Every structure is written in C-alpha cells, then in structure tokens.
Model the fold of this input.
Amino acid sequence: MTTPTKLPTAPVIDETVRLLTEHYVFPEIAEQLAGLLQRRLTEGAYDVNDAAELARLVTADLQSVNGDRHLRLKHHTTPVPPKQGAATLDAMRRDFDTSLGGAPRVQLLDGGVAVLELAPMLFPLEWAAEPLSAALTLASRAQALIVDLRANRGGDPDTVAFVCSYLLDERTHLNTMHWRGGERIEQSWSLPHVPGARFGGSKPLYVLSSDSTFSAAEELAYNLQQLGRAVVVGEPTRGGAHPCQGWTVHPHLEVTVPFGRAINPVSGTNWEGTGVQPDVSCAAADSLDRAHALALGRLTG
Done:
C-alpha cells in the first residue's frame, strides 16, 4: 500500500483523463493515454508531494505514445485561476506588456536589410494587431527582410495570417484546420487589406528558426516556406502543429489538450513531430549573419 501524499494526485489524473477523452484530436490515442495514466496512478507512479514533479511525470507519459508536444500537464509557480484558458492568458498578458506587444526589435542592417524579431510569441490578434502593424509597416521600406522567430514559442493562428498578409501581395490560402471529429474544417487566408504598408510578396524574405521555435511560429515559417515566399535559415523547429486549449486542474497545474490539426494546402501535411526543416541549415546563433549575407547576395547579385 502506498503512503498517501499531500498532493491530491487522483483528482488531477481523473480530470486530465476526462479532458483527454473529451477533447483530444485523436480519440484512439486519447483512449490509450487514459488507460496509461490510470494504470500509472494505480501503480503509485504519481505519488509525489511536489506539483512540479507531478507535471514532469505526467507530461512524459502524455507524450510517450505519439510525441505530441502540445499535450502537457504544465506547472505554474503562482496559483492560476480556474477558468478555462485563464492560466495561459495571465502569463501571456505579462509577456505582452514586457515585449512591446510581441515585436521587441526592428533594426536596419547594412545594405537596406531589416530585421524584425517576433517574440516571445504571436499574441492574440485583438492585442497584437496594433504593435505588429506598426513594426511591419516600419520594416516595409526595407530592401530585404529577416523575420526572427528563434525565440517564438507560438500563439494565435489569426496572428499568423495577419503577419503573412504583410508579406504577400494577394489573398492567399495559408492553412486548413481540421477539428476533432472531422465535422468542422476551417480555412486560414491572408487578408485582402492590412492597416499600414505591406512589405509585399516580391522582395527577398528570410525567416530565422531554432529548436525553440514552436507551434504558431512554426506555422508562420512553414506557410511562407511552402508558398515559396521565404527562405528558412537556422535549425529544425520543435514540431507542434496541433492547436490546443488549457484547463486548470489544480491551483498550480494546467492541462493543455490539442483539439485540431493543421493541413497545409501546398504540402498536404504539416510539421507535427518533424519540425519545419530549414532551407539553409546552420546553428541558430549563426542564422542572422547567414541570412544577412544571403540577402546582400540577392540584392547585389
């Protein structure tokens, strides 16, 4: 018989199993994972006193069947509100306020090449439209543009479409989301009109990637790469193509469950598990210099 723990482990696991079963985009895998989590609970594998340790153990099990990196039990140091999605929203708001709205750097390099860093994430469009429009409009005058996604961990698919709209000339089909059960399909398109000025669809464009680039940031890189619009420079990205939602299951723990999958209209697939593969491979730390050199070569060649 296992010693009871101070942490109410069973209710956390039970609620995680319920959310998985109801919402996960792959019902068969949800069933497998539910069985695994319940078995591990019975075996005493989750008998720990520390919420962070429980999050680590459960996340490892959640990702053990198909490696879905969006499937997590996340630990939050400060208590999180119980409302669905509130934990993520609270953390995002703090990041938004300290990153100039997700566009912390616009810089002009030698030769008329601009760098636009989008980090730490692509925030909800109702927050981010104004700062992103300002940054993209400023960068629109450059001869070539480098979009730095090396430290971007994801965000809002609508914001991906918004950014793409500044980097294309015509309304373009970017992505299609297939939601659980297959009864709902939603296409994502670039916008016919944007506030401010477009960089446009013809000047040289480079996207920097790292093994930290994740989720919606991967979609941004992948969309532009598949359209032949941008050259991706750097490292393969983390490989998470499933949009997810978060539920608080304990004052310090949040379950994130993917409920849809992305299908690119050009490739017919996505970057789940494989990451976005760079066109020009190099260490992330060297990718800005590499992209700058490539841009100068294009402009002077």
In short: Helices lie at 9-23, 27-43, 51-62, 86-97, 125-139, 157-166, 216-226, 287-300.
